[in-house]
Amino acid sequence: MKKLLVVVDMQNDFVSGALGSEEAVKILPTVKELIAREQAAGAEIVFTMDTHGENYLSTAEGKRLPVLHCIKGTAGWEIIPALSAYAEHARRFEKPVFGSIELAEYARQNSYDEIALCGVCTDICVISNAILLKAYCPETPITVYEKACAGTSSAAHDASLIAMRSCHISVE
Questions:
Q1: Which residue ranges form the domains of the chain, and what is each CATH number?
Q2: Cα gap 113→98, rounded to integer Å
Q3: Which of 9, 16, 51, 106 could link 20 by a cystine bridge, Cβ 3.0 to 4.6 Å?
Q4: pTM of the prediction?
Q5: Helix, strand, or coil here: 21?
């Protein structure tokens, strides 16, 4: 069985930096265990990276979320230290917006039997990538690991899980 595990935006700025949260810190052990388990089972592990430039505040996103974060080349942009060993040799998808079309195209081209996601933020980048993957790979089972995701709030996390279920994305 050919499986892909997508680790979404587990970068310093989303865990302990500019947009960090207690919820993101709390999922770290679960995310790390999940990656280790899936890697041992032969899954391909990839990482998405929110990637912005110095002009971020003048972008459409920056005008709605005026917090500098994940500026390419800064410490906040890097994958968190707890996962850096896994990310070192993994494919990375830099994305200037919430979802990665490049990731979705990659998944479609590689014909995975199953795709799973974990990471942050459930209600922004996790859901965006899950729905893009579902659109590009409609016959591929897609799972989001609830306890390995953190949202911008508990309510937003829960609402996103409901929305993903409605789009035929499994939540475990």
A1: 3-171 (3.40.50.850)
A2: 24
A3: 16
A4: 0.97
A5: coil
Residue pair 128/98 in contact by the 8 Å Cβ criterion: yes
Residue 150 host element (H or E): strand 142-150
Separation between Cα atoms, residue 9 and residue 121, nearest integer Å: 8
Angle between helices 127-136 and 154-166 (to 10 degrees): 10
Strand partners, 149: 119
Is the alpha carbon torsion for 21, 104, 45, 74 positive or negative? negative
Task: Give dist(CA 102, CA 107) in Å, integer.
Answer: 9
Q: What are phi and psi of 149, to 5 degrees?
A: -130, 150
- Contact predicate 166/134, CB 8 Å: no
